[in-house]
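Dear colleague,

Following up on yesterday's call, I've attached the two folding results inline so they're easy to grep. Please treat them as preliminary; we haven't cross-checked anything against experimental data yet. The first protein's sequence and structure tokens come first.
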Amino acid sequence: MPAPIRLRELIRTIRTARTQAEEREMIQKECAAIRSSFREEDNTYRCRNVAKLLYMHMLGYPAHFGQLECLKLIASQKFTDKRIGYLGAMLLLDERQDVHLLMTNCIKNDLNHSTQYVQGLALCTLGCMGSSEMCRDLAGEVEKLLKTSNSYLRKKAALCAVHVIRKVPELMEMFLPATKNLLSEKNHGVLHTSVVLLTEMCERSPDMLTHFRKLVPQLVRILKNLIMSGYSPEHDVSGISDPFLQVRILRLLRILGKSDDDSSEAMNDILAQVATNTETSKNVGNAILYETVLTIMDIKSESGLRVLAINILGRFLLNNDKNIRYVALTSLLKTVQTDHNAVQRHRSTIVDCLKDLDVSIKRRAMELSFALVNGNNIRGMMKELLYFLDSCDPDFKADCASGVFLAAEKYAPSKRWHIDTIMRVLTTAGSYVRDDSVPNLIQLITNSVEMHAYTVQRLYKALLDDISQQPLVQVASWCIGEYGDLLVSGQCEEEEPIQVTEDEVLDVLEGLLVSNLSAPVTRGYSLTAIMKLSTRFSSVNRIKKVVSIYGSSIDVELQQRAVEYNALFKKYDHMRPALLERMPIMEKTATNGPTEIVQTNGETESSALDSKHPPSITQPTNQANDLLDLLGGNDVPVIQTALPTKPASAGGELLDLLGDLSLSGIPPMTAYNKNGLKIEFTFERSNPNPNISVITIHASNSTEADMTDFVFQAAVPKTFQLQLLSPSSNIVPALNQGSVTQVIRVLNPQKQQLRMRIKLTYTLKGAPVQDLAEVNNFPPQSWQ
């Protein structure tokens, strides 16, 4: 049989193929020749044939028939055969195929071979594709090589140990004695792989994390030597000594210093040195600085060091490299909640990133800009964000508009500014605002009583300019229907009133009904607005004609409205003024029972509770068990709370501003105090509706560990209605260093004694805790 062609000739031949079909034909022909050679047990050219097969595998062609030939090469005594055999095993075999178990004995023999390069091949293969069975059988050999003095083998053994630990975590303790001397090695390759091994062990076991914290001073010393050492051609990368090792050490320090004061204190100085001494002109230095920033933010570092880290991210924002700018924005977004003031210093740079051409950078800059908005900078930030809303891509407009609405609702300096801002959004990006924005904006306008004339005038002007923005048209139609009389009378004091006649207003609304730009929902708003104006305008006959026309509309919704409105004119005209009077101020509350959640611009908000018509349910006779059994059984401890009493003063009960008196005149109470968790209730009355009691819970934690996943739930008897608003956090800080607050609103129309069943769930030191309690001794002022 003629000698098969060499690998180099095969590559050259395949590259001459002009079409995919021609290439496939060449590969099939060569595979047939290789199969024939394998069947004839040709040992002379087995190595060459497997090498060609690996090249075909890299091109995406099937090469599984060469698996057993790889095992034969591994069993060979020649190094060249072993090298190709082990390479083939790493590429063609994995733990899903039983064939790989046949290699176990060969690898074991080669791990004990007298030649370090053969041992290295065996370690690489085991570390690449060893199954859990192989790792269990060969872990002892790997551990021996980890203790050898040969640095070439130690670095490969350390990486192999990482794979063994990932496959069989219970073997971790076997490698613990071998790790003692790894960090004292001078060879950078061994140091690097040792740090990788220690990192893997710390991430997988809390016990190992505690054990290795004593190595922090040694790691700090290694890092200090790296940044202080002179030029070393062997390890130098763009003027920095072994940046790969520096990055690995910084990551390990981040894990060791997290939630540990002593370790964090030990590494504060070296982190400051790395942050100030690292060259930033090259990407290598930026990589080290980024890891340094992440480490500073994760450990319990000093406040000055955290400011330094945020300033580094601020410098990254000025970098020409888009990747570095993106990384900086993402990191600042994570830290803005904990270091808000430090991030605020870079506000102008962050806002400049909104003008970046890169879409990813613009999105991150927009999210970070909204996170920076507060009561002090709301005007300036909104100006920039509204300018961005004007010019940004359509993909950004919906999120940006929602963000503006939320920020304006939270920090608006005045009602007029709030309404002006919303008007600007509606006129520039109205078609992109979310559907739930319209009812929210209507509620805002309704509640701003003194701004009704100004708002309806602004919306009318906007409607004359543009009727293509459907949310704008819907809000404007609703407002004109409610406050059209204010528009016509010209009562606006905030700006110069415009002269509008009733016919002009009706012309605009009728134009919306016939416009091709109007959606069916918008036409419904317009028709209802026209109907509402029948009690505000004198042009009743004209309105009757418009309504009667749409009684035969092909739009079923519009037709139904028109028919009902016609009935109002004909049969129930005496009721029409009362039915079409102005809407009252809207209040967001919730029904009793499980709280109904409504999505509003990305945030959850409790659904509205109709406080106008409370259900008249008779009081059950059994006073002890009439609480809704939403939170568990009846065997709940009843907490008799002690109300704080104050000695009466002769001078008229001056408020003790430094004491714990409630400003509402209702004394606070302790509702729950057990296992270090204390729940206190403070009370106030809801001004618009005296039947609503507003209770604020304050949860504090006196234990040494944070209580995470904290959830407070409450249930009341059926004659009450209850709404739970969102809590300020789900983590109750340890040692009374802060508290979680949550607002409860209780509607008590019959002025009955308030009783409540509460359910508390949280996680303390990894263990879930759940408790039920009943609170019956509310202060009489809170419910009378």
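Below is the second protein, in the same order (sequence, then structure):
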Amino acid sequence: MEARSSGTPGEPWDSGGTLRNHQGPDDHPFSSMFCCDFPDQPPRPPSLAPQRWRPLIQGTQEAGTRAEARAGVKRPEVAMADKRRRVKVYMMSDDQLWDELGTGYLLPTYEERLRGLSLLVQSESDGSLILESKINLNTPYQRKRENLIIWYEAENRGMAIIFQDPASCYEIWKDICKVQGKDPSVEITEDLLDESEEEQCDDLPETSEQLGLPNCELSKLEQIAALVTAGLTSPLRKERLALVLENENYIKKLLQLFHTCENLEDTQGLHYLHDIIKGILCLNKKSLFEILFSDEYIMDVVGCLEHEPTLAQPRRHREFLTQNAKFKEVIPITNCELRQKIHQTYRVQYIHDILVSKPSVFKENLFSTITTFIFLNKVEIVSMLQENDKFLAEGFAQLRDKTTDIDKRRELVFFFKEFCAFSQTLQPQSKDTLFKTLTQLGILPALKIVMATDDLQIKSAATDIFAYLVEYSPSIIRGFIMEEAQQSEDGNLFINLVIEQMICDTDPELGGAIHLMELLRELLDPYNMLATPTKCERSEFLNFFYKRCMHNLIVPLLSTTSEDVCEEDNIVGADQNNKNHLNNYQTAQLLALILELLTFCVQHHTYYIKYYIFRKDLLRRVLILMNSKHTFLILCALRFMRRMIGLKDELYNHYIIKGNLFEPVVNALLDNGTRYNMLNSAVIELFEYIRVENIKSLVAHVVENFYKTLESIEYVQTFKGLKIQYEQEKDQQIQIQKTLHSILYSKVFCRDSSVLEEKEEMNFKENIEEGEADMPPLEGEFQDCCDKFTEAKKTKENEDKVDLPKRISFGDLKFTSSHSADTASSRASNPSTISLVDYSDDEEEDKEDETSLRKRPRL
């Protein structure tokens, strides 16, 4: 019998067990790869079932048909002819590998037991049942490679059938689609399979162990392009394709065809070569890149990439690389290997940019080996340059030479910028060695010279080099600045030059100023400053900075905010000229950058910035910026004040209260009106923080001065909460004062009474011993004595007008009484007993009291 191939009769199986290669241009190039290694001229298969089971099967089918007719079930119209379809059956194992179940013949059959159409496969050797699978409505089936159907059983077990004849595969596929109500033109009946499942499908056995590519001929370019494109669909195919391309000089022959197609002006062939070379690059194999990117072939590869099929006219990549892209040796390079490596790196980078014209994560991953190739080349270039000390030393010498012309200086700066960019690819140890070498060769003095030039391109490139150095080690930069400050007493310092470049940036968007501000913040960050037993970098550098640099940083702030304190209202304002200056966008953006840096200093520099703010009255100047029409500048000023309050430092709080510096904030809130925007939220958050943290001094100041103005704001409870806290604190202070007076009175009175009783008791005992017992005073007389004592005490307090302090140490405070001479003498004999007020005539009063008391009768 004849076996059918691709639905075309009369094409017998060849002796090799695979279909003969009579594919047309539109046939899938890999269709023959998945034909199983069936034997020549397969024998006539046995009957579908043993003879004794055939009547039973037929009877069952007839019974099922009658049952469906009675139940009104419409049976799907499926061709049930006894067509023999030779297949191999595979099942996925627990190890995610495909195990072969056997070779047999498939026939779709309606099974009454399964109540539906099923796929039955019987072994060609003994007629045993290999597969019995019902076609379920919800099971996703997928048709691949024209002769493969894949699906999953109910227990999540992968199944696959490989057909000998693609036409048979399509017939079975139509039956499956009819059952599920799908269009046979689709390749997947349900949701797509996962990527892992796709890869597992690619691991199914194939007839050829290695992919074979046709000979490199013009007539075979289309077939080669199709094979290369199809070879990118799975990792296994990529490996096989790369193995073929590495052998037999296949790439060399392809690039020879490129010249032939160009000479013949064969546009179609050039388009095929574009797809072939791009596909080879997508294989992501370093061994292939070594061939493609060699000096012999790299320009031919670029030429192939010019002829993109989607473009009407080819691009001119080779013309750009050979004519427009000029290699300039700023310093002569005598090493031929180094020069060749630089050329190769530039061209490979250009090829990478062609392939990844629209950046995406997918493309970057696809060409990751090219990126690695470029990376390794850059490492080699930097290493070669680093080993040549004379080369780098000559470059820095030319930069420092004032006689060097501007063009030469620009090229030198561009070269060192690219050199530092390449250095980022080095390992930490090699990178550390390189930057130490650059510092020793004098890169920082050279940068100071080039940053002072007026050429914007040179300034920008020098700033990038400075950024690389700061990123590597801020301590090296700070050390150079400190050494320079010790040698020079004037203000012409490198860091002042950086501040000047930031302030004088001419870019309307201040791109350079933003970059320099970030570098300054990195230099001022105390967390990357070193501290050793012999040196504290933090204190030394910050002392130097606030003494010799900070005034340069705040020059725009001081010049823009001219202070105008109105005598009538005692508020902070600004004159009209400065107000117009505040409304300039570029000026406002620069001031915002300065405020951001000052806010950073408030957070990290503690007392350095604190006393600078007090000395310059800096917060008052900053709050003038709240008159600007730019909301972002107002928020920067507010954030500066908020950071000060967030430190909860009473010195800052006292400074704010004394200067009445909440007034501009309250005015900004009132001017904002009912708009619910960021400014409104920022001001409310400021007062809410004061309330939550219960900063008592600020709470009292806000309530006493601004509550009447803010009490109408009821959409938040912040100001009412401040009022409640203020009242609670006030009541608590009153209660404390009452308690203090009570404790003080009880301490004084009780102590005087006890002293009096003790002295009288002692006198009484002495009188008994001497036999001088007199009559005790009457009760009324004793009451008169007490009244006189109380009146004398009140009179004394009114005359002295002594104000008790808020905090009194009661242990050291004692009062004396004039009721008896013994208490007076006791005060004189006891030096720890003191009076509230020391009068000059105390001694005379004491003598009079002593005389009067002696005249009183004793008991």
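For the second protein, one point worth flagging: The chain has a mean pLDDT of 75.

Best wishes,
A.L.
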